[in-house]
Every structure is written in structure tokens, then in C-alpha cells.
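Quick check before the chapter quiz. The format below is the same one you will see on the exam, so make sure you can read both the input and the output lines.
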Amino acid sequence: MNLAKVLGTVVATRKEESLEGLKLLVLGVLDTDGTTTGASVVAADAVGAGVGELVLYATGSSARQTRVTDARPCDAVVMAIVDSWEIEGEERYKKGAE
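Here is the expected output.
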């Protein structure tokens, strides 16, 4: 699993039939301080995440193990919306406190 911030959405009117109905999000990959690394990824949304939210996403074969992405050609999936995280007892992020 990886941390990311939802930067935006992707709309593709022509796509593989099995991708119909999937919401696609543009994610900015984060480090443990919550800073964007400069890397980005497009991921299917399995949890209803919105722009600006911090999320956990998985890639590779793990991306096809959610109910939403099962048997679909997805290489990345958002599978959780982050409420908070801490490292060595220090809270690094709390939703709504930013």
C-alpha cells in the first residue's frame, strides 16, 4: 500500500468495456511527511474518494483484488481514505485538521 493525495479525475469516454463504470482518479504520491514526491498515478476508485483527500492505494495484482476491480485490467486502485497517521508516536496527519 502507498500514500497519495487525490489531485483530480480522469474521464475517458472510449475505453475497454470492462472498465465501464469505474471512477478514475489522478493521485500524487506522498512520502511519510505528507509531501508530494513528484510521482503520480491514475487509479480506479473503490471507496468513493474525492479530490483533496489522502488515500491508500495498491498497485499490481493487488489492485485487482477489490470487489470493484475484480477481473478488470487495473494496475492501481484506491482502497482506503486516510483519517490519520502517526510515525513513532508523532501524528503526521489528521483529516480535517489541515
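If your answer matched, good. Residues 8 and 48 are 13 Å apart (CA to CA).
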